[in-house]
Design a protein that fits this description.
This protein is 25% helix and 33% strand. It is of the alpha+beta class. Helix 1 crosses helix 2. Bound molecules: zinc ion (ZN).
Length: 126
């Protein structure tokens, strides 16, 4: 499952950072998830909760901020948001052709919306 494998990656990074910094207890995990990742924030949260059981992160509050997509068009120079049709969330990676809302060209670059970042972690040190 898409969300679970992403949660596993996030969890591994959080645990590594916590270990490297001598963290005793993780209080909060703040994440940024781009809309174009098609991750369901509730499922991601749930997967992280499951992974956190019996660890220093078991009582951590998980906050997920959704990043709206933004593109740059290589044809007309448009930068900004896009609208796209299709389901909101997938359990597998979808293949979607994104188009410029101004000229309809598909020669675009995604500036924002595909990221899945750990913004910060609040924790108690030893
Ligand atoms: Zn364009």
């Amino acid at each position: 499952m898409h969300e679970f494998s992403m949660a596993q990656q996030i969890f591994n990074i959080v645990m590594k950072v916590a270990k490297d910094n001598g963290v005793r207890k993780i209080l909060e995990m703040n994440l940024e998830v781009g809309k174009l990742t098609f991750l369901n924030p509730e499922q991601l949260k749930f997967a992280l909760k499951v992974l956190s059981e019996d660890t220093i992160a078991q009582d951590a509050k998980i906050n997920i901020e959704i990043i709206q997509p933004e593109i740059k068009c290589n044809n007309c120079g448009y930068t900004g948001g896009i609208s796209y049709s299709g389901p909101e969330y997938h359990t597998t990676y979808p293949i979607i052709l994104l188009k410029c809302p101004k000229c309809g060209n598909s020669d675009i670059e995604v500036i924002r919306g595909r990221e899945c970042n750990i913004k910060n972690i609040k924790a108690i040190k030893q």
